[in-house]
């Protein structure tokens, strides 16, 4: 039986462990805390699923496949993990990122439509289209209950035979040392999120603090779609599980240490979120923050991920660049084929020199 050690039980490592266990591998999953612990990037209350990725069709197709994965996972565990609220894109430019996304979605046959800014009131109780050229509606986009999905994916992996080992892993040649004990397998995958930057300092990774804010809003706002203003690096969605309406920024924050950094949001993040809320949804001006959360991005310069074989059989899966959650079930299937030797990873995921770009994230603002 082929064996693999996956280090890191965030959504990437847990989904991969589950996938490999289901396809005949003996899997050991090593996690320093508990799956779904609050310092993980995967432990945000919610994460968006969208297919629009600017002019890139690889990630658009992957997200479309991942949607099936989330729905199937929800059915399997008996609770909905993916809430298909739809998503409205607020396009500030007539021929910018959203137009490029629309062309790709059209080519891939992924449903969407373009609307005038005044049609925003179809989706939101109150809406200002100020500064917008058009809206793009993605009806099958939505919101994933992220932390819950991470916990359940890891639990399912264990039910499928994965051995979950609690401990801090360190590279030991081609093996893995967990709190002093050396473990070996046919393959090793380091899926350590933001911790990868310290484990493998040669990787092109920057870790940044990201603050999220949810506001207390009237009940009429609970069922709204998710929304993204790429030009303003702002996004959000309606209430999920009682934590309020998310309105927050995708612009990258200050450098951050994932294990010890303070889990308190900055006043500036709250101010930015409040002011965007008031501008786009005027009747919500002055809404009180209900829930806040600190998380971290693990950014590559071009927002392309890292899927790299460091030495024979030893892989790094990281650099999610703030847009990796939604893809997890489909990414796990893709990485499994690589570990099986059925295909090489796309060149884009390698350690070549990367040219800074922004098109894959929902953040069009340069900082
Ligand atoms: C504020 C914010 C908003 C986001 N919004 C979206 C969104 O809307 N849509 C989307 O698709 N994505 C989004 N993302 C990105 C998404 O959350 C990440 O892509 C995803 O969670 C990455 O998962 P991961 O498993 O790689 O990392 P993590 O979830 O961080 O997991 C890594 C795990 O590895 C463990 N670990 C690390 N080192 C060791 C070690 N040495 N030994 C043992 N265990 C170790 C850690 O404890 C941790 O549990 C967002 C991220 C943030 C921060």
From TrEMBL:
Keyword Nucleotidyltransferase applies: no
InterPro entries: FAD-dep_OxRdtase (IPR006076), FAD/NAD-bd_sf (IPR036188), MTOX (IPR045170)
Keywords carried by this UniProt record: FAD, Flavoprotein, Oxidoreductase
PANTHER family attached to this UniProt entry: PEROXISOMAL SARCOSINE OXIDASE
Protein name: Glycine/D-amino acid oxidase-like deaminating enzyme
Annotated GO MF terms: flavin adenine dinucleotide binding; sarcosine oxidase activity
Cofactor: FAD
Residue ranges annotated for the FAD dependent oxidoreductase domain, each copy included: 4-336
SUPFAM superfamilies associated with the record: FAD-linked reductases, C-terminal domain, FAD/NAD(P)-binding domain
